Amino acid sequence: NAGVTQTPKFQVLKTGQSMTLQCAQDMNHEYMSWYRQDPGMGLRLIHYSVGAGITDQGEVPNGYNVSRSTTEDFPLRLLSAAPSQTSVYFCASSYETGTANVLTFGAGSRLTVL
Amino acid sequence: GQNIDQPTEMTATEGAIVQINCTYQTSGFNGLFWYQQHAGEAPTFLSYNVLDGLEEKGRFSSFLSRSKGYSYLLLKELQMKDSASYLCACMDSNYQLIWGAGTKLIIKP
C-alpha cells in the first residue's frame, strides 16, 4: 500500500495563479482532510470530507476549494494564489471520524507564492 | 477559546529521559494525541489517551489528567533519531482536532 500520496512536493506560484494539489489514498479511508502548517503555529484544518460527495469547511477555508468525487481522491484547489498561502500543505486520511481515529499523513507539499 | 500549549523547544542528552508537557483548553474532550514529525517529513502517530493515567509503548509513554487539562509525553533512553518535533492535539466535542504548535526536541551526544 502506498498510503497517502501528495503531488507536487514543491511548487512556486505567482500571485493570482491557480493550481491544484493532488491527494490520493489507497487504504479505503472514508475521512480525508487538508491541513496547512506554518512556523510557530499548530496544524490548521482547511477542508475535510467524511465520504465521497461530502465536503465541509475547516478552520481556514477561504481561498481554497475541494471536491470528493471518489473515495480515493481529495484535491485541493487554490483559486487565486496569495502570498499568505505560502505554507506546507498536508493531506491526511483516517478510517472514519470519531474518537481514537489515527490520521495518516501524506509527505506534504511546500508551496511558495511570490 | 480553544488552546493547546506546549514548549517551543527542548534539549536533552542521548541516553537520558525527557518529558514534554502539553496543557489544553478545549470545548469538550474526546481524547489527546501525540504525533512525531521529523524535519521536512509528515507527522506520524505516537499515542492516544482518553482516560486518565499512563499509557506505555516501548521507550515512549504518554500521560493524561483530564481534571488538570494536562498531558505529557515521556521519552526514555533517548536516541539521536528521536530529534524531531512532537505535536500534541486534542479532539474536541465535535471530534475536530485542535493542534499545538509542536515542541522541537534536540538530542545532543
**Unreliable segments of chain B (pLDDT under 50, ≥5 consecutive)?**
none
What is the general shape of chain A?
globular
Helix content of chain B: under 10%
Question: What's the tally of helices of chain B?
Answer: 0
Structural class, from helix and strand content of chain B? mainly beta
Q: What is the makeup of the main sheet of chain A?
A: 7 strands, mixed
Which value, in Å, is the CA radius of gyration of chain A? 13 Å
Strand content of chain A: over 45%
Q: What separation lies between the terminal Cα atoms of chain B? A: 40 Å
**Could you report the average pLDDT of chain B, rounded to the nearest whole number?**
96
Number of helices of chain A: 0
Arithmetic mean of pLDDT of chain A: 95
Largest interface: A-B, 20 and 25 residues
Assembly classification: heterodimer
Largest sheet of chain B: 6 strands, mixed
What does this structure look like?
The complex is a heterodimer of chains A (114) and B (109). Chain A is mainly β and 114 residues long. Chain A is 0% helix and 48% strand. In chain A, the strands form two sheets. In chain A, strands 2, 4, 5, 6, 9, 10 and 11 form a seven-stranded mixed sheet that branches. In chain A, a hairpin with a 6-residue loop joins strand 4 and strand 5. In chain A, 33% of the residues are buried. The model of chain A has no long low-confidence stretch (mean pLDDT 95). With 109 residues, chain B is mostly beta strands. The mean pLDDT of chain B is 96. Helix content of chain B is 0%, strand content 57%. In chain B, the strands form two sheets. In chain B, strands 2, 4, 5, 9, 10 and 11 form a six-stranded mixed sheet that branches. In chain B, strands 1-3-8-7-6 form a five-stranded antiparallel sheet, with no helix packed on it. Chains A and B meet through strand 10 of A and strand 5, strand 9 and strand 10 of B.
